[in-house]
Amino acid sequence: MSAAITTRPPTAPVPHAPAAGGTRRRSRLRTRLELALLLAPALVLFVGFVMIPIGVAAYYSLYSWSGFGPLTDFVGLDNYVDALSGDVFQSAVGHNLIIAVLSIVVQLPLSIGLAMLLNRKLRGRTFLRMVVFAPYVLSEAVTAVIWLLMLQPGGFVDEILRAVGLGGLVQLWLADQSMVLYTLFLVITWKYIGFGVILLLAGLQGVPEELREAAALDGASPWQITRHVVLPLLGPTIRVWIFLSVIGSLQLFDLVWIMTLGGPANASTTMAVYLTDHGFKRYEFGFGSAVAVILFIICFVFALFYQRFALRRDTEGAVTSGVR
Description:
Blueprint: H1 20-60, H2 78-85, H3 87-118, H4 125-137, H5 140-151, H6 156-163, H7 180-204, H8 209-217, H9 222-233, H10 235-250, H11 254-259, H12 271-281, H13 285-309
Helix pairs in contact: 1-13, 2-13, 3-7, 3-10, 4-7, 7-10, 8-9, 12-13
């Protein structure tokens, strides 16, 4: 009996699989290159138009410089001391804070109310939304000129008040030191209320209708539904609006400069008006640069703390989220 001889077919060589570590490294490298290519244009613009001007302003602020000739008169931090100890600058900071507080206390409830009203199914709702948003489309210069003409003595506002029998309310709207700041705030509210309404309307679209219906079935009143259902879900939008409103109030310039130039007697001066007046009208560029740096620091510190404590629940991956 002969033994059967079996032969095995030759096996092909198995190619070596690439190492997992090398694949991950190449993937990370590719991701970094993609991020670098995508971020490079924005980063170049940010450095060129934000970081470098800030550095130049900080450098100029250390000199007493009129804007002409070389920088030779080094004064160190004297410009900062003079600005922070000056009565006019302190008043300007107070005016900015008053506008910011009034924006939150007055504009926010008004914006929420109008947004909830315009979110209902009303006849002519689209037209009403357009009417509310239209002032925001106008430039600050156009808005300032329109209201400057309407608020002058014997102007449109005075005539309207007299026509409806409220002539006793007529004031020197832009010439009374106790009235001018609040008059400007009314103009600011008219100008920017549309932005708040549109922003809150967008937030209301994210409130599920089923939650309102469920709350109504449980016996909740309209006010309870608004208080315990709508407003909490509208919280992220409200916090974003507050941030934008406060930053805008701290940087307020255009309307004030055109309508009052900070007057009368600095009663409506803001920080931006103050630095423009000293930097460009009085040719105190070193001092104006110091005021600009102070304004930047105030806005930056507010933004940092607001993001850290107020926007923390709404943002992920923020710079301050890792600060514990």
